[in-house]
Amino acid sequence: SDRMGLEDDELANDVSAQYHFGIERSDVMVSTRAPDCLLMVSRSTEEGQQTSSSKEDVIVSPVLKQVYPKLVEYVKTYGHANIPLGSTEGRQCKTLRRLHIQQKLTEKETSLLEDLNFTFSSMEDVYFTGDFDEMLPKLLAYEEEHHDQYQIPKKYKRDPELGAWVTGIRRLGPNGVDPKHAERLDEVNFMWKSKRKCGSKFMKQYRAIRERIETEGQEAVLADEATQKWVRAQRDTYRRGTLSEARQHYMANICGREDWYEI
Does the pTM exceed 0.85? Predict the structure, then answer.
């Protein structure tokens, strides 16, 4: 009986080892099937990898292909994909915004970025990030061809970046751009106000508040309940990391303080 007991123990140990390492023997029927929970985790991981891989398969832009994994990681940590400029990935994001303005990203690439809550450039940002010496000759060439006082459409199909750049300059106005740039634009008789009736909801509200401040005073306008509600909405957008730098500048201008989001 002792001998049989030893054999039983050895067999039990042999079975345990084979189960653990997934080994099969013809004389011992051992199940090598992993626990259901492990199989589910494995399948979930594989499906996640396949989903991520399938998304990256639609990427054509070398810049987006390189930064996309970092954007996904950033979203998991911060809830959005707007990596600050002080890093390689931040500079790549800046490049992506310019490529989007130039319409050099495919629809699928744009959708990928939108799914990550990536913020594309506002028109004003195009001015701040663009090269003035590069854009001004394009502006003059447009006027020489069209003779319409620089009335370039916001969505100018032949050069989307130029249309956005001019729109951004008009929104900022002569006091909002670099004084040297304003002087050079005045020298070529640039028309600071567009004849086209357009403007984002934000800009319409901003202009309305600015006009009220000029007549009623900043303190009175900021005490208004409707104004406070609008400022809070912009503050929430800022804290989510989705308020453009240009709009942050506008909000500081209206509120008279750089830390307007603390009001």
Answer: no
